[in-house]
Amino acid sequence: MSTRAEYQAIVVGIDGTATALAAARWAAALADRERVPLVLLSVAPAFDHPLTASALAETTLMLSDFRTAAKHKIEAAFAAVHRDQPQVEVHQVVEDGIPARILIEHSVTARMIVVAADLGDRLSTLLLGSTALMVANKATSPVTVWRGATDRPLPDHRPVLVGVDGSPGSSAAVGAAFELASILRVGVLALHAWNDPDLLQWTPVPDAWATLAEQERELLSERVAGWSEKYPDVTVTKVVQKSPPARALLEYAERAQAVLTGSRGHNRLTGLLIGSTSQNLLHHAPCPVVVCREP
To answer: Which DSSP category does 131 fall into?
Structure first.
């Protein structure tokens, strides 16, 4: 068994929580539809600093216990996945280290990394969790931060939602949304939200709002046109809304089964960090959030 996600597998981080188990079931359903392997990955804590001779023996026993616990978590996830999707090729992997770091390493060859956000914990809902946030920021593959009802994790008939703003990251998200919708046999809800230009707040122009609204509708149509041609089986609903993007996406996410977003904001100072809209979705969306990478 390989300890790395080769051959474009979907890799799921397993930590023993109900949310991680639901994320694994969702990922297995996606792997089945895409006909790719699934890797269930649990990370046992490891010490990355030198230990004294007296502490080494005790630490060795402790690490053995960590690995055993990680193996049990994997086995529980495998049982649940196998009940749903017995035909999916599943690899069970236990590694030692720091969870975020290991998942980011797997992202180099993975088709997608899936990590869980626990909605039941108010603190983790607010802070999202260091592992999920770090993986969403630093992974090289698309990352799904799984959120939602743990008793209904499997894909359904609802559309997938994508935010469209014209940036390269948004373009990657639009393409991924059409691909995902085609795989799941559902529609795409393409949302473009725009704010008031500062100039018009101070210098009103006759009919300016109507003109701007029409321009924004044209922009959205242009951004999805090519993908509609590539995926003619996917029905597209286009929505243009004068609103902050995060607010509009969270509103429409209530009727979607997943929301896709780009990995970067428009601010160059964010560097490798995802943009504020994506951050907002990761912390508050009612469904899985897929962070897409620019090609």
So the answer is: H
Q: How far apart are CA 189 and CA 164, in angstroms?
A: 10
Burial 82-117 (b: 16+ CB within 10 A, else e): eeebeebebbbbbbeeebbebbbbbbebbbbbbbbb
Predicted local distance difference test score (pLDDT) of residue 217: 85
Q: What DSSP line would sit under 260-280, residue for residue?
A: EEES--S-GGGTTSPPHHHHH
Checking phi first, is residue 7 left (phi over 0); if not, alpha (psi -120 to 50) or beta? left
Structure tokens at 79: 């049982």
Residues 6+ apart with CB under 8 A from 68: none
Axis-axis angle for helices 18-34, 168-184 (nearest 10): 80
What pLDDT, in 10s, does the model give residues 70-93? 899 999 999 999 999 999 999 999
Q: Quote the strand ranges of the chain, DSSP E.
A: 10-13, 38-44, 90-96, 112-116, 143-146, 160-163, 188-194, 236-242, 258-262, 289-292
Query: Is the pLDDT score of 225 beyond 80?
Result: yes
Please, are residues 9 and 110 in contact by the beta-carbon 8 Å criterion?
yes
pLDDT tens profile 185-202: 999 999 998 775 544 444
Cα–Cα distance for residue pair 277/267, rounded to 1 Å: 12
**Residues in CB range of 174: below 8 A, 6 or more apart:** 162, 164, 190, 223, 224, 227, 260
Percent of the chain that is helix, strand, coil (3-state, to 5): 45, 20, 35
Q: Rounded mean pLDDT of the chain?
A: 83
Q: Taking Cα atoms as reference points, which of 18, 205, 8, 212 lies closest to residue 117? A: 18
Whether the Cβ atoms of residue 163 and residue 246 lie closer than 8 Å to each other: no
Q: How far is CA 280 from CA 128, 145, 168, 254, 265, in A?
A: 10, 12, 19, 14, 12
Checking if the pLDDT of 166 tops 80, the result is no
Q: What is the pLDDT of residue 3?
A: 43
